[in-house]
Automatic annotation (TrEMBL):
Source species of the chain: Cylindrotheca closterium
Protein's name according to its UniProt entry: Divinyl chlorophyllide a 8-vinyl-reductase, chloroplastic
Domain NAD(P)-binding: 36-236
UniProt keyword list: Chlorophyll biosynthesis, Chloroplast, NADP, Oxidoreductase, Plastid, Signal, Transit peptide
EC number: 1.3.1.75
Pathway: Porphyrin-containing compound metabolism; chlorophyll biosynthesis
Amino acid sequence: MFGKYSSIVILGALLVAQINAFSLDMSAGKTAVIAGATGYIGKSTVRESVRQGYKTIALVRDKSKVESKEGKMLYGQFFEGADIVECDVTNPAQLTKTFEEIKAQNGDIEAVISCLASRSGIKKDAYAIDYQATKNCLDSGIATDARHFVLLSAFCVKNPWLQFQQAKLKLEADLQAQEKMTYSIVRPTAFFKSVSGQLEVIQQGAPFVMFGDGEVTRCNPIAESELAEYLINCIADKTKENEILNLGGPDEPLTMKKQGEMLYKAVGKEPNFFFAPLWLFDTIIDSLQWAADTFNSEKLENAAELGRIGKYYAVEDMLTTDPSEKFGKISLQEHYDRIAVEGQEYDPYTTMFAKAPTSD
């Protein structure tokens, strides 16, 4: 009986290995160009593209941020096996020339994957990056006969009352209107990073801050590595062509309070919550907007928009419960347990009150 069971296990393992090998054969020698390669999701997407066997071109604005003078990769293993190409995606002429060079050196471009996203979300940044720079990548892909375009968008564009959401929707519309390339528009609910910002806060003894009663919103975020896997899968998966794809992680709906409890469990402390009233957002936003209008101040207008972004995520669910829209196996608790020990990459926009790492 045991021998028979072992044979089944071995046959199953061989079948999985053959399927994986077939998948790699399908991508072998094909070129994938990744824009936004040094971003949070971009780095993982570069690594996943290499893992799946694509000839991977990572577009970066500044090589020195990826590779030191000694040739050492500053991002660890993320860029191993990829070709790093320096290019300014906000310069359309330079970008198209770069795409032409990539095609001349590597053959036809199988896919362009855009992981570009504005850092702040304010109007100027959003339309420069979420729209125009991404549109430049689309135009350059079309000019060089690239086959497929994968766009990392956002689930939150379903209810767009923020500038960056409107910029993303404008690009989505342009992508759907063109007929030269097939496309996949991927809208993840949330990244693990975006719900991990208070780690350092509670480690330092401060309370976990939430709005309302902590039960206002729910989400099921996805791990960066598994989102990257999904993005690269879109290149060869015909069922994902010319589709808008909502995507969440494997967790059941998680409230803000539940996230706090999970984070305290990870750091081994008793929960300590601070509940902030939602009306604070309106008071701050209205005051900033009044001052911006009165003094015609772009700086204050940007501050008001940042307030609106904060309110949006305090009152809107980032959640999909459709089983067909959930992907991956890594739970948020597993992520919290890991970063509680290893720490997390510093990000001034999502890591609350933490200090940037100092260079030695």
